[in-house]
Amino acid sequence: MSTLLTKPDPFEGVFAQLERARETLTPELTLREVGTVLSVATGIALVGGLPHVGLDEVVRFANGMEGIAFNVDEHALGVVLLGDYQELQSGMPVERSHRVMDIVVGPALLGRVLDPLGQALDGKGAIRSELRLPVERPAPAILDRAAVCVPLQTGLAVIDALIPIGHGQRELILGDRQTGKTTIAIDAILNQRGRNVVCVYCAIGQRSSAVAAVVARLAAHDALAYTVVLVADGTSAPGVAYIAPYAATAIAEHFLEAGRDVLIVYDDLTQHARSYRELSLLLRRPPGREAFPGDIFYLHSRLLERATQLGARRGSGSLTALPIVETEAQDISAYIPTNLISITDGQLYLSPDLFQLGVLPAIDVGRSVSRVGGAAQSPGYRTLAGALKLSYAQFEELESFAKFGTRLDAPTRAVIDHGRRIRACLTQDESAPQSQAEQMLVLLALTAGLFAAVPLAQVRAAASAVRTAVAGLPAELGARFAAGAVLSATDRAGLIGHATAVLVPFRTPAPVPPEAMGAAQAVAATTPTTPPSTPVAAVAHRPPP
Questions:
Q1: 72, 83, 109, 311: which is deepest, by most CB within 10 A?
Q2: Neighbouring C-beta atoms of residue 312, cutoff 10 Å
Q3: To 10 degrees, what angle do helices 388-402 and 436-447 make?
Q4: Between the CA of residue 82 and those of 55, 88, 206, 311, what are the distances in Å?
Q5: Residue 517 CB: number of other CB atoms within 10 A?
Q6: Separation of alpha carbons 59 and 56, rounded Å
Q7: What percent of the chain has pLDDT over 70?
Q8: Is 371 designated active site?
Q9: What are phi and psi of 370, to 5 degrees?
Q10: Quick one: how many helices (H) and strands (E) in the chain?
Q11: Which of helix, strand or coil describes residue 70?
């Protein structure tokens, strides 16, 4: 009898499983709002439908691109595109996302370079963090804030001494292009190494090569470990440039709410305002002064109001903002610069004239101001730098007056001579931050008049030698000096003696009075020298031609 071999049925049990699934399935209806693209322009799109979309809500197109509801009109929705508009076509479906624009935040962003959409740009892989925050958030309440009284050392002596910045302050940096605005901001970031300060650098509308140079400079000085770089370069869509500073602030606020001190740089808000103007004009918003929309002031005020010093009950964190704005032909009375001057707590104006003279950083002290003032300096630093700004401002006025060739009296010449030495001591190279102790010792030598005997051409070298001599101070005195404590009379005398000994090789030797010289030396010193002449006898006996 033959045995019949049968293969197992591959569909055995499948239909039974389908039957059980059909019995347990409860169908549900899901409500979805889907609109249609009506028209597309550079950076914006008009969308029909979607009657329940809210302002600033994210909408998603069929190709995966996202946009932000910018204009909520009766018959159409104005959407700011967060990608290339050439990928869209009329009639393409659009769907709501039921969320506002947000960005990834957290410690995983430290040392990374990303765009305002949270996508990595440094080739180190995707950013892995489950924390996200909306890019637009309300500023902290007044009762949650504290006074600005803790100094933020930038490492630049002219700023720390004359225009000090405190934690939680908003200090505007403005000037013509190529005057060193970005350099000042990057030097401030470099000086935060070892100070437990998180830094965020936001590049808006900059060239990719310039951003790459900044990242390379931060990496060369080991500053990327505590820095987040957010980039919306000149090739980005206007909508991406528009949300860039808000996204960077959301990243900074995560560390702020954790009780950390944060420094954020916006480079620069001129490009941000121009991208907002472009979007507004394309969406038919009424133009105002210089074609900017009427809410351009609110655009930056709601951004910079988020920078603050929080009180103890909110963790005592701080967010210090250094916005950068570009002027044209030294016109600080233009629309965007004046708006930002009125929003911020002071400004650093960079003069092209000083830049061309080689005075770096080229900060015009007369046009620069810090509305926090000495409250952002340590007590010991404030006692040394108190009268320095007044002396320097007087020098600048007298220097411009002396250019007319006016005959000056001795006190005026002394003020000009002292001011030139102050300027030489405050001149500083790029990427060379100075510690608080080094700056204080130089200021103490300046106020004591120790540089008066040093030739002007050697003042910078002499100041460098004084800064180097800080390492040779006694440990106890050096600790009080570095902490910025008020120095006693004994401490000041010891420090002045230390600086005097350092400056001895740079001093011009004083003239020796005649009574202290020998008789022959005194006669030789007082006898005028005359060129040799032909003897009379030789002329008389010269043979005739």
A1: 109
A2: 8
A3: 60
A4: 16, 12, 18, 36
A5: 14
A6: 9
A7: 91
A8: yes
A9: -125, 115
A10: 18, 16
A11: strand
Structure tokens at 239: 């909508």
| DSSP string for 132-179 | EEESS-PPPPGGGB----SB---S-HHHHHHS--BTT-B-EEEESTTS
CA distance 57 to 96: 8
**From CA 484, how far away is CA 478, in angstroms rounded?**
10
At residue 485 the predicted structure's pLDDT band, cuts being 50, 70 and 90, is confident
Give the full edge-to-edge strand order of the sheet including 318-326.
Answer: 113-114, 227-232, 197-204, 261-267, 318-326, 172-175, 346-350, 369-370
Enclosing H/E stretch for 238: helix 238-257
With left for phi above 0 and alpha for psi between -120 and 50, is residue 155 left, alpha or beta? left
8 Å CB contact between 29 and 90: no
Tell me the pLDDT band of 531, cut-offs 50, 70 and 90.
Answer: very low
Please state at what angle helix 238-257 crosses helix 296-304, rounded to 10 degrees: 30
pLDDT at 480: 84
* Cβ(163)–Cβ(348) below 8 Å: yes
CA separation, residue 146 to residues 110, 164, 257, 285, 322 (Å)? 27, 18, 14, 38, 19
Q: Using the 8-state DSSP alphabet, how is residue 488 labeled?
A: P
Residue 349 DSSP SS3: strand
Query: What is d(CA 297, CA 241) in angstroms, rounded to the nearest whole number?
Result: 17
The pLDDT mean for the chain works out to 88
Which one-letter amino acid corresponds to residue 120? A
What type of residue is 70?
F
- pTM of the predicted model, to two decimals? 0.87
pLDDT at residue 191, rounded to an integer: 96
Answer whether 308's CB lies under 8 Å from 257's CB.
no
Q: Per the residue annotation, which of 60, 145, 371, 480 is the catalytic one? A: 371
> Could you give the CA distance from residue 172 to residue 425 in angstroms, rounded to a whole number?
24
**Pairs from 304-308 (Cβ < 8 Å, separation ≥ 24):** 304/170, 304/340, 304/343, 304/344, 305/139, 305/343, 306/137, 306/139, 306/140, 306/249, 306/253, 307/168, 307/169, 307/170, 307/264, 308/139, 308/140, 308/144, 308/145, 308/168
Region label for 49, one of left (φ > 0), alpha (ψ between -120 and 50) or beta (otherwise): left
